[in-house]
Amino acid sequence: MFGKVLVANRGEIAVRVMAACEELGIETVAVYSDADRNGGHVEYADEAYNVGPAPASESYLDQEEIVDVAQRADADAIHPGYGFLAENAAFAARVEAADGITWIGPPSDAMETLGEKTKARTVMQEAGVPVVPGTTDPVADPEEVRQLGEEYGYPIAIKAEGGGGGRGMKIVRSEAEVEDALESAKREGEAYFDNDSVYVEKYLEAPKHIEVQVLADEHGNVRHLGERDCSLQRRHQKVIEEAPSPALDGELREEIGEAARRGVREAGYTNAGTVEFLVEDGEFYFMEVNTRIQVEHTVTEEVTGIDIVRWQLRVAADEELTFAQDDVEIEGHAVEYRINAENPAEDFAPTPGPLETYEPPSSIGVRLDHAVAQGDEIGGDYDSMIAKLIVTGEDRDHCLDRSKRALYHFTVEGVHTTIPFHLLMLDDETFVSGDHTTKYLDQELDDETLDAAVEHWGADAVGGDTPSASTDEIAVEVNGKRFDVVVEEGLPRAPRGGDAGGGSSGGSSGGGSSGSAPADVAASGAITAEMQGTVLSVAVEPGDEVAAGDVVCVLEAMKMENDVVASTGGTVASVPVAEGDSVDMGDTLVVLEE
Ligand code: ADP
Question: Residues 77, 159: one domain?
């Protein structure tokens, strides 16, 4: 096994990898940019190296610097996490070529083959895996695309060879759109992936996104760990992932798992990977392979009990998989919620800022993968993810009930988050029934619903629909029972009355079962009820002289007798209430004149 591993990443995934290293007795090396000096992954690692300024291109993507640091630190392996350099075959090759350093991932040539989508499609077809109808060669000419449109029927998708996450993918609904779509897919491919080569696929109208986790060692063993359902997407980006899929039956599950195994075996693939499929009308079609650990690997770990990152390390160290395919059992259900610093009511725009409050949930069935703490700043340099909340239950229904509990108790203040969106989904019939397709959110989710969700559960009110404790809520004990009292806007914060001059006298007047009811004397001289209750007795009548602190009546409220006292002296002008009356908060009890 390795002695020291450099993790070429940041945030939660860097910490996740380091946790696996720690359990295997491996020392860890972090790299960080100027923006991440106080990053959670830096703190977690045994040693850490600054690799450059905030822009990823000058730090986390600086291949030479990262390999150099690995050598300086005497690390004997590099784990890339996901994103950044994780799917960069050239970087993998560079690490493979570096003296004394092992690449924790698939061989660079398998990455190269599977990273190019048309090559991957060819390999899969050779392995007898059904692929989405389309080309296995790049296309360049609009006329060619038009012919394909005719052959498959519109809509079709023009996809960048190097694409992913919906980037570099253009949907074409008619012949007239071909030319523009082709140009823009090429442009995006060039801009994001340095590769302007594109190909054409039939665009499925309402598919499920089903992906199979695979693990392969260097001794010819290939296992699949069942599927994940990532059908809940916004603009082709995954938002909630789960395992197992509510949409597969046992037979299709078996078929799709075996197809994934055949495909990666054909490609000479080792280590962890994901084979992605679209499923429509009971048929499945290969889409692409992700040659790395994925964000959502967690849900597979939860339902199989297999630590995928630990196996990435063991396989890279030439160990053999110790379990057979039949040993892999799926138990229970797991869902992952990406908690991002984004405002769902503003088109999910990132909202960088300080994590003023950060109180994640705990207790049974809750796993949290994160690298932040209260007080941290969520910066704008990298992705907006704060944490991944993974909830497990006996079955899907149980898991969703538990998820509500966990999300209610996830309190974040200072930045907007996707928590209100997740809570919305847990009340959404289509998601709850598992009938959603990849198109569901884009077609059905409207702005008003999102606005309302953020209003209801968002910002200050995150964590169970209660306003922020620091400003609007006070806790009181009445007869030993605790009440959280919301102080409405526009009403005085501290109870007034008693002391002349408006000092606080709202505390108990001494009797075990009686208190001094806060009374409000408005400018007009009205003493009003500060809470809803019943008038037990009236102590004054018109013409009486009262001094500040005198009891003018007694109210029963919250099962307790409360003396209502005058806060200033004066003559009683009128008493609009009588014994036995019910009064509301704000009702006038006694009017004084100076
Ligand atoms: P990645 O899985 O790396 O994000 P893609 O960009 O290829 O890769 O796909 C992202 C999403 O776009 C898929 O999950 C799916 O929702 C949608 N998609 C991709 N190809 C097709 C297709 N041919 N038909 C329908 N939807 C597709």
Answer: no
Q: How many A from CA of 355 to the centre of ligand 1? A: 33
Same-domain pairing of 51 and 99: yes
Distance of CA 255 to the CA centre of its chain: 31
The residue contributing the CA closest to ligand 1 atom 21 is: 203
571 is catalytic: yes
| CA atoms of 139 and 357, how far apart (whole Å) | 51
Q: Which has the higher per-residue pLDDT, 561 or 384?
A: 384
| Alpha carbons 34 and 51: distance in angstroms, whole number | 8
Q: What is the pLDDT of residues 196-221, one digit of tens each?
A: 999 999 999 999 999 999 999 999 99
Which atom of ligand 1 is the closest one to the Cα of 169? 6
The single-letter DSSP state of residue 391 is E
Q: Which residue from 63, 81, 74 is spatially nearest to 26, judged by alpha carbons?
A: 74
CATH code, 43: 3.40.50.20
Amino acid identity of residue 34, one-letter, is D
Q: For residue 336, tell me if it sits in a domain.
A: no
Assigned domain for 32 exists: yes
Are 100 and 137 within one domain? no
Q: How far apart are CA 100 and CA 75, in angstroms?
A: 8
CA 535/CA 162 separation, integer angstroms? 76
Q: Which helix (H) or strand (E) holds 280?
A: strand 271-280
Domain check: are 139 and 97 in the same one? no
**533 lies in the same domain as 570:** yes
What total of structural domains would you count in the chain? 3
**Could you identify the atom of ligand 1 that is nearest to the CA of residue 285?**
23
> Tell me: the pLDDT tens digits for 109-168?
999 999 888 999 999 999 999 999 999 889 999 999 999 999 999 999 999 988 777 788
Q: Tell how far the Cα of 339 is from the centroid of ligand 1, in angstroms.
A: 22
- Separation CA 540–CA 452 (nearest Å): 49
Q: Indicate which residue of 113, 351, 571, 588 is catalytic.
A: 571
Domain boundary residue, one of 155, 174, 202? 202
Q: Is residue 167 part of a domain?
A: yes
Q: What is the mean pLDDT of residues 516-544?
A: 77
**269 within a domain of the structure (yes/no):** no
Residues of the domain holding 191 = 133-202
The Cα–Cα gap between 506 and 16 comes to 52
Q: Which of 556, 529, 541, 555 is nearest to 592 (CA)?
A: 541
